[in-house]
Amino acid sequence: MRERTKLENAITALTGIDTELSDNLELAEMADAEGDGGALDEIQASLTDLRIRAQAAELEALLSGEADANDTYLQVNSGAGGTESNDWAGMLLRMYVRWAQQHGYKAEVIEESAGEEAGIKSATVLVKGENAYGWLKTESGVHRLVRISPFDSNAKRHTSFASVWVYPVVDDAIEVEVNESDCRIDTYRASGAGGQHVNTTDSAVRITHIPTGIVVQCQSERSQHKNRATAWNMLRARLYEQELQRREEAANAEAASKTDIGWGHQIRSYVLQPYQMVKDLRTGVESPSPDNVLDGDLDPFMAAALAQRVGGEKSAEE
């Protein structure tokens, strides 16, 4: 119901804008014929306002999915390749945290497994804010990095992979049933920063959903009880996201986006050498400034992927 209301509001707004645009174009023709410069200036200002309103309505339409308005979990996993991939996963994590901060979102690390020499093996971040899931949902997939490795004394070019998985926080408006008998719960000692108490007690919690194989874990709190509650919420969110994926695949006849972390499955390439470019392989959107992208400048890629996704859903419905 919520997503339908958002979409209906956006359609109503765009219809009104289209009517105003036609009226202004007719007035512009009349003013031009009469040489009325003052009227033309007013019409120009009106058209500028219409463009701003149209962009806002377009964004509202793109973010009209069932859970788009919700907070979201974003999980980063390094691919094969040891230190290289771990470092790349750490760079991706920083990129998304920077993007979140630039948009006024709060990014909270729920779980992090550090790499042995650099970067991370995996991490999960909770991004809180209006439309967090709507913006980030198209970032799920494999991300590829090409660069001269800082860990290679021979300065050879290396290719690294890491995967991103995004799933929405389930709020009170969404019901997801989980049978505790279908789950295995493990506790273990948290690693990394967090204080002496965190690292000397079994406060971290891992939940495995046996029917689906989904695994979630949380170690952000000193209390095992709090970590357990967060892990349960993460599991419900993953199961809900899985259902959303199933619906989308049925409508679009697309393969699942969670694939092997390696060649042939990437959604975006980040090339630092021998030239500099970031290219989204789904939409064709490019940027000649990888440094800016890695510092959080992701909006052009996200907007294009959202537009493509909405267009695909409409085609499937037709």
UniProtKB/TrEMBL annotation:
Q: Which residues carry this modification: N5-methylglutamine?
A: 196
> Where in or outside the cell?
Cytoplasm
Q: Which keywords are on file for this protein? A: Cytoplasm, Methylation, Protein biosynthesis
The molecular function terms in GO held by this entry are: translation release factor activity, codon specific
Which Pfam families does the UniProt record give?
Answer: PCRF, RF-1
Extract the PROSITE patterns matched here.
RF_PROK_I
Q: Which NCBIfam families match?
A: prfB
User: What name has this protein been given in UniProt?
Assistant: Peptide chain release factor 2
Native organism is: Parvularcula dongshanensis
Gene name, please? prfB
